[in-house]
Amino acid sequence: MDNMVASNGTLTANETGTGRIKAGPSGRKPRRRLSRRNIIVYGTLIVVALYYLLPLYVMIVTSLKGMPEIRVGNIFAPPLEITFEPWVKAWAEACTGLNCDGLSRGFWNSVRITVPSVIISIAVASVNGYALANWRFKGAELFFTILVVGAFIPYQVMIYPIVIVLREMGVYGTLTGLVIVHTIFGMPILTLLFRNYFAGLPEELFKAARVDGAGFWTIYFKIMLPMSLPIFVVAMILQVTGIWNDFLFGVVFTRPEYYPMTVQLNNIVNSVQGVKEYNVNMAATILTGAVPLVVYFVSGRLFVRGIAAGAVKG
Amino acid sequence: MTSVSVRDLSLNFGAVTVLDRLNLDIDHGEFLVLLGSSGCGKSTLLNCIAGLLDVSDGQIFIKDRNVTWEEPKDRGIGMVFQSYALYPQMSVEKNLSFGLQVAKIPQAEIDKRVKRASEILQIQPLLKRKPSELSGGQRQRVAIGRALVRDVDVFLFDEPLSNLDAKLRSELRVEIKRLHQSLKNTMIYVTHDQIEALTLADRIAVMKSGVIQQLADPMTIYNAPENLFVAGFIGSPSMNFFRGEVEAKDSRSFVRVNDVAFDVTSYPARTRLHPGQKVVLGLRPEHVKVDEATEGHEVHPATVDIEEPMGADNLLWLRLAGQSMSVRIAGQRRYPPGSTVRLSFDMAVASIFDAASENRL
Questions:
Q1: Which of A93, A127, A175, B139 has its CA 20 to 30 A from that of A58?
Q2: ipTM of this predicted structure
Q3: Which SUPFAM superfamilies match (chain B) (predicted)?
Q4: Taking the model in full, what pTM does it have?
Q5: Alpha carbon of A29 to those of A22, A25, A218, B351: distances in Å?
């Protein structure tokens, strides 16, 4: 290039031709496939991936085998004869205590617990976060600090007091009671999530809406909500998986007929009478874990985007 | 008739005082610019006038109505923000009409006002687009339109051009001026850009740490700055300052700076300069004459340090009286570094400040 400038734009054939390129490195830098760096990076990733996938493989394979095949003992071997019998049994026939209608009852209980809990907790927490981020009312910082501290208190500490509170309210042992508990315990982390997200949105948008005459709810529904899809997806995933996988609250705050799927799974796997039906247990476990798994797969990309959006600025 | 009147306004954030008993009266149809560096309280003052910040003390009147405790929407103001602040999920048309719909204005009236605003700002082809599909200049035009449809008396601009590139900024600057000339609304405009302030304003309020340093028309601000801060803030490159002492000889007065004595007899001083008084002499780079035959002015030799050709102008950095000073001359006049020039000064357009109080003498 220097040459071109020096010669004032008039190029001789010599300068434009390939003769200008000398021997030695030129163009794109070559990379070796099997460099030490690649071996370490891919090697580590493959080992970690196997570490996580192997148990899932064993579970799926075992759940598709009949009991005689399992007794042979080759847990890594693929099934010789594929059977869906264990899945059907886990869903519809497995026994917990006296009733033998399988996991299906627990599934519907979990749905009846998860859906209202997720909706109510997200609705309340998003309004909380919006109020804390945008309407700096007196004591806002104090409320926020209390909420954040709440996120660090171990659940076990609060179980007995909550049992008493629910009993006094007359909802102990009901689904309503459990929904209330899930809503309350989701509040600190969700409020934090929403507050940070809303605080990251341009403040001038909020000001512009106020000049336009919009009030608390108009700004929330018309301006903030339409901009917040990613964070709502994140909150939904957190809550669905958290509440679906919950065991402690399900066991403590409900009666056996309302036990969520996780509690029922535990009861099926740990029932002591008769032979241990490993294939049924494996199928039941996969069924219980299926809902969070599906949620992750469906909304995985939105999840990553939302986490970053909520976390970077706060 | 005053359009906006700020009386004894104070604002504290906890122990920090941002505005302290500030007074400001803005006439109807006036274009007032609040100018200052960041953190001087100019945006805070604008937010107080808009009602987006609660004041700690004092009053705000808009059109002779006390609006100190009113909500922003009830104050009769429209506001344009630096980041445009367009609602991202709404089309341009929705953005313009949102405030009117919130106010439950009949749809026919909304359509009429949106049509008028989009004609004035020439954004009719953009009405169906989303803000993300607009360029920066178009977005800011829509943001101005949002203030326009509100049919208000007072427009507030919070650094509206700061996010645009230099070319667009100068284009939109002219458009805002044209808009003001045709609408004749009161406009309060916050900026840190002195060119915007000087070109747009009827009056400029130069602010520093919550206090208005000088409130005057642009030419007065430029030619007769009230104190050292205003003198240094306005003008680019900034004014040359020489710290010295007043001397009197043969009924002429001088300011002595090291080995150079500037003859300031022709300076229109407000109060007499006393011999021995410590002062700061301010000379704008464009008011210094280089190698020109001037009658009645002293000539001082100086050496060229650095030359900065800028096309239309040529900026010379010289050494005089033991310090560096800049001089602006026409672009075609070139002086290589090291050459000696002869300077002369017109003291009628100079500024002299008291060294202690930093106020104009």
A1: A93
A2: 0.84
A3: MOP-like, P-loop containing nucleoside triphosphate hydrolases
A4: 0.80
A5: 16, 8, 57, 63
